[in-house]
Amino acid sequence: MNRLIALMLLSLTAGHALAAGDSPALIPAPRKLECREGTFNLHPKTHILADRASQDTARYLAERLRQATGYKLKTTLGTEPRKAKGAIILTTQEAKAALGPEGYELIVAPDEVALRASGQAGMFYGVQSLLQLLPPQIFAAKPEPGQAWQAPCVWIEDQPRFKWRGVLFDTARHFFPKAEVKQLLDVLALHKVNMLQLHLTDDQGWRVEIGRYPRLTQVGAWRDEAGFGLDPKLSTTYGPDGRYGGYYTKADIWDIVAYAAARHITVVPEIEMPGHASAALAAHPELSCSGGPYTPNAKGGVFAGVYCAGREETFEFLQNVLAEVCELFPGKYIHIGGDEVPKDNWKQCPRCQARIRQEGLEDERELQSYFIRRIEKFINAQGRTLIGWSEIREGGLAQNAVVMDWIGGAAEAASTGHDVIMSPTSHCYLDYYQSTNHATEPKAIGGYVPLSKVYAFEPIPPNLAPAHQSRLLGAQGNLWTEYIPNFKHAQYMLFPRLCALAEVVWSPPGARNWEDFLRRLPVQFQRFDQLGVNYRKGTPERIGE
After folding, report:
1. Rounded distance, CA 456 to CA 459, Å?
2. Given CA atoms 176, 193, 87, 140 in this order, what sign does their dihedral have?
3. What is the pLDDT of residues 256-303, one digit of tens each?
4. Who contacts 170 (Cβ-Cβ below 8 Å, separation ≥6)?
5. What DSSP assignment string belongs to 464-514?
6. Is 21 exposed, middle or buried (0-12, 13-18, 19+ CB in 10 A)?
7. pLDDT number for residue 343
8. I need a labelling partner for 490 at 20 to 30 A (CA). Which of 107, 359, 369, 512 fits?
9. Whole-prediction pTM value?
10. Cα distance between residue 370 and residue 271, in whole Å
């Protein structure tokens, strides 16, 4: 352990300079990296040459470089060698198709940088690696005078291990304004994360404007207090009337989705059903079994209020909501939750019991499956794919559903032809404590998921047969926010654990090494400092636990 501490201290004191035998501090680690002699010097006359397909990525790179260097680099259409002396070249020509649309090849030489990718996602990820080769100050928000902008010469061939490299951000328990979501997207892009699941509805709040049902945000987006036993001063999301909460307008969502898309991140909305519905039922109690009343909750737990599966009005309402959600979020996937559904109200509800008899269902578990299947049919008709938590398997799995596994059952779902995403509490719940010494940590929901455990995560379940491994889309880290009332706290819980998870889902096992990850991490911390990201600091003994 002393050696690891020394490695981190060396990295901190040496800045961006590479020690003998060290490779650049890239996170996530690339699939293949070869260090070469020399450095590439970025200067005010450096040109960015890009083919027609890569113009947006070239402009992104130029703007990122301008913020820190002050250089207004020209971006030029074309990649002819005669124009390329001392340039940064972005091209799809001669790209290696085997690397796929998210892969890239990056060659940094003293006289030019060449980035090749067959798709613009790969081009963008190559740009992220190029930025990480430069000094951490390249992520500064304003020019850094006197800084030498040098990148070590390397050859990199890279592609992701998994298609789904995700993060869930819970905005229902506590509301996080649009600007904070966009700040998170910037840091996710740095780590080559490509999926952001926004948890938009729960018992504690409804956070997305639905034009047909204004009461969802008029009533469901606000509660009397921050709750959860937290100091109310820890959050600032109070309305003019002093009530706690907030929501995203349609314009906010369009802005977030476009901002994410420019960074090759898909925003996946989660609209909880049939449980976790107290905020919605506060606005529309007529959709419950009992008729209410309900209020958005200010505490955690699993609550009895669920949508009534015996009312046709419930399905009409949810289909109308989902139709607007599909207009707001153009991605392939719609997450409907489906977890932690108490059945007590259904057991006592004459309408739900009548539905069970009419549909020839055995019990309330099959009623839940009936509910999910009806919703899936509607979602599929919109050209989308339904995702649900592990519990959507209860009573039989909907035909085309994707299972996001947090409590087990991924191998069984994959064996029956369903895509799965791993998100187990044991390694991926980033709201859990990072230390066993709770006195030194902010309040958390419980559990213990240290950095070292996240890094040791293997997404492929041991009982998943090789023949079914193609059904594993990837993995996702979840930040539930019951005890996380502000963005600085959210960042503290995410980082550096998300650095580890990003490497797990991007890098092949052979490119991962715990000691080397710890060597690279301090440079990532320097990047975080430039970006204004709050993170858990300390020695390997502290952050690795």
Report:
1. 10
2. positive
3. 999 999 999 999 999 999 999 999 999 999 999 999 999 999 999 999
4. 199, 202, 478, 479, 480, 481, 482, 484
5. S-GGGGGGEEEEEEEE--TT--SHHHHHHHHTTHHHHHHHHHHS-GGG--H
6. exposed
7. 96
8. 512
9. 0.95
10. 18
Omega within 30 of 0 (cis) for the link into 274 = yes
Which residues is 196 bridged to in the sheet?
167, 267
Distance CA 377, CA 398 (A): 9
Which domains does the chain show, CATH number per domain? 2-158 (3.30.379.10), 164-506 (3.20.20.80)
Helix or strand holding residue 454 (H, E): helix 451-455
Residues of the chain with confidence (pLDDT) below 70: 1-21, 81-84, 539-545
C-alpha span between 535 and 451 (Å, rounded): 12
Q: Which of 421, 379, 372 is nearest to 398 (CA)?
A: 372
pLDDT digit string (tens) for 9-44? Answer: 333 333 333 443 579 999 999 999 999 999 999 999
Tokens at 112, concatenated: 């030019």
- As a whole number of angstroms, the distance between CA 235 and CA 242 comes to 12
Q: Show the DSSP H helices in 47-164 as ranges.
A: 55-69, 120-133
214's CB contacts (< 8 A; 6+ apart) are: none
Order of strands, sheet of 112-116, starting from the edge strand that comes earlier in the sequence = 32-41, 150-158, 104-109, 112-116, 88-91, 47-50, 74-77
State both tokens at 235: 């959050």
Record the tokens describing residue 296, joined without a space. 């958005």
208 secondary structure, DSSP code: B
Tell me which residues are annotated as active site: 202, 276, 340
The SS3 call for residue 165 is strand
Task: Please count the helices (runs of H) and the strands (runs of E) in the chain.
Answer: 18, 19
